[in-house]
Design a protein that fits this description.
This protein has 534 residues and is an all-alpha fold. Helix content is 63%, strand content 1%. The chain has a two-stranded antiparallel sheet with strand order 1-2. Helix 13 packs across helix 20. The longest helix is centred in the middle third of the chain and has 51 residues, at 192-242. 35% of the residues are buried.
Amino acid sequence: FQMPADLPDEILANRILVHKILLTDADDFGKLSWDGMNAQAPTITPEEFMASFIPQTAPHGHSNSTTQSIQDMSIGVARSMRLAFFNRIAHEMGQGNFGPVRELMRELHDKMRSLLPSRKDLHSHINDEDMSSISTTNDVSRLLFRSGYLLANYLESAARAPTTRELIACMEAFNSCDASDNPSIPYGIESEEMLVVASTGYLLHKTELCQVDVSNYKLSQAAPLLHGVGHEYERKHFKKTHGDYGSTTIRELQRMLPFTWNWVKKILSLYGSSQNLTAFEQKMDFVKGRGFVDGILFTRSELALPELLSLDAESIKHIRGEARCCVIASALSLHACNISKIGTSALSSIDMTDEANDARQALSFVLRKKHFEQTELERDVIDASVALTKALAGRDLTKGEVEALNNHARAVLHGNDPVLKLLDNRVQGFFRFACKWKPEAAASSTAAPLEMKTGRSILKTDCDAAMRHGIKSTKEEFLLAASKEALRLGLAYFGSELVEVGNEARIIVSLACTNYGREILGRFFEEGGDGANK
């Protein structure tokens, strides 16, 4: 088996990245990125960037650092280190030492030149020799205006450039003010030196983002090619890790993949016999529904993840967490309707107030937030449930209603609520529907052409890679069908989140069945009737 020569080696060397691409729908190729973030995420604005250079107090309600997630704390540490670095440069400028800011400008120019290696005519606009004469903040600003203009007009895409122009226009307006008028420094920055340094940092961030855009665009162009050969790629690497499963006896295969064999054996003993599953498609539907949903996503027993799902461990953990949040949130919202006597039909109303939508999002946030103590979790969930109930009812709650809501919330969180158990079954049924769903061949649509994320003309041709390679998109068709199913099951209020993770689960198990269905799962099913009883 040989990979196409035009697939970049740096992609093929990254097995996890290839797997991620195979799990990506054709409509989302343009969102692929090397760092796992959405490549089409909005650009941070100058005001948002500058906010990290303004001394801030702890947000209300977060004075206790133990309530913050590890991710929040790591972001805070990175922010503090960046602030200290730029503070030092600004301090040196204030003392008349422009050496550190020259180095920062040099880094900016080097990165910009690397994006335009052949445009020597433009290199003159970002010449490092001009930095030797820097002696005031205005000198730095003039160089920044030139660099910002070049970045916005020659390097960035039309979607990225406006925020760069916004920063330059703001700085030009500030510099044009008469100093005797004592103009206020933009963005609430404390000093002119810090404004110049922070602005340099923003242009550096935008230049690095431009470099990432170029790499991400190439990644999105490789995605359709990988979808054509990726299954063989994954089988090849799986064999390297676990052995050549295609040329083994069934006993050797069981020893080679013990976790997968134990999983198949267990689901057959719990949910049915292989003798009732004759056709291959029936067996794969059984794997997707009973095996993956009941046996992995919703299992309450300890189970080692099957080897053929080893690359999906984090995604499965995420899906399980989202399913749990949806079940709990749906149960709490039903109690909110019953206690306030507004009727559960309010949860599927299209005329939901902004306050109710905000309260729904607040409850979802609380359930996803990392809590280190049960009491903190209960307090936050109860507060969010009360706010949701008030928003749905459109009035304040009586003391008795608040007390009833508190009791129901605690019962839900402790798993002792009958409504919770009902909704858990419904959500489990939704995931079975999602994982076994198949598109109608005639309704499948081809992907729209990919939009390039950088302004470099060298890459502005042939963006319709997915269409040219015949890669079909099934995402929109699935989202529509899944949304209807969520509404039918009474899960519409938190249906958008549920539908998204349902799609994620569907793609994961479908890829596993495509890769290993016949040579591994199918053979285990043939043995399952006897092996399950041994």
